[in-house]
């Protein structure tokens, strides 16, 4: 699993921002490029970026080979495990690239579950920040009525955090 993540990050670094260098355009195996793009969930339309960049050096990408590779690669990406991973990282746009692929229903189910997990985690972090802010106010205030109100708010947030931690533990069980 760690090796897969490293490979995906490496591929993103190679193909994520700029499309291709002059040398890469000249030696590209377009089927392999398509396979790699599909395997990391890149939209097939990324081929247009290659066409544009490679045209500057007189190279025309082989669209048929690219599409053949991309079709195989996207099947590797549109899996329940990747849906969960994309969702837990808050990347809902992965849904669009898998929409017409076989296994879309399972991918999107786990993407949705992962997004819920992500949102719960974000709420826990926001609540922690708010609790720190309220605690800081409590530490500095001298008025009894303010202290009482701040303690009440902290108690409410503490209960909410308890509920959210239970929820996130339940959501974690949905992982493929």
Any chance you could write out the topology, listing elements then pairs?
Elements: H1 2-15, H2 22-27, H3 30-39, H4 47-55, H5 63-77, H6 80-88, H7 94-98, H8 104-140, H9 144-172
Helix pairs in contact: 3-5, 6-8, 8-9
Q: What are the salient characteristics of this protein?
A:
176 residues, mainly alpha, 2 domains, 9 helices, 76% helix
Overview of the molecule:
With 176 residues, the protein is an all-alpha fold. The protein has two domains: 2-77, no CATH class; 80-176. The protein has nine helices and no strands. α6 packs parallel to α8 (104-140) and α8 (104-140) runs antiparallel to α9. The radius of gyration is 23 Å and the shape is elongated. The two termini are 13 Å apart. Residues 6-17 have low confidence and may be disordered.
Q: Helix proportion of residues, in percent?
A: over 70%
Q: State the oligomer.
A: single chain
Task: List low-confidence stretches.
Answer: 6-17
Instruction: Indicate the overall shape.
Output: elongated
Number of DSSP helices?
Answer: 9
The biggest beta sheet reads: none
Q: If you compute it from the alpha carbons, what radius of gyration comes out, rounded to the nearest whole angstrom?
A: 23 Å
Look at the helices and sheets and give the structural class: mainly alpha
Mean pLDDT: 89
């Amino acid at each position: 699993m760690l090796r897969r993540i490293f490979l995906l990050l490496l591929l993103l670094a190679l193909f994520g921002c700029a499309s291709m260098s002059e040398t890469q355009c000249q030696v590209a195996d377009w089927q392999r490029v398509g396979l790699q793009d599909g395997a990391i969930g890149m939209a097939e339309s990324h081929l247009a970026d290659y066409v544009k960049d490679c045209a500057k050096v007189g190279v025309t990408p082989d669209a048929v080979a690219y599409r053949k590779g991309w079709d195989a690669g996207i099947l590797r990406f549109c899996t329940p495990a990747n849906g969960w991973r994309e969702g837990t990282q808050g990347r809902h746009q992965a849904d669009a690239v898998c929409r017409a692929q076989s296994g879309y229903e399972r991918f999107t189910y786990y993407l949705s579950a992962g997004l819920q997990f992500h949102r719960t985690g974000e709420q826990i972090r926001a609540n922690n920040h708010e609790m720190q802010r309220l605690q800081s106010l409590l530490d500095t205030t001298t008025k009894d009525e303010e202290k009482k109100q701040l303690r009440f708010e902290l108690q409410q947030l503490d209960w909410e955090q308890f509920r959210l931690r239970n929820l996130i533990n339940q959501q974690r069980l949905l992982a493929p």
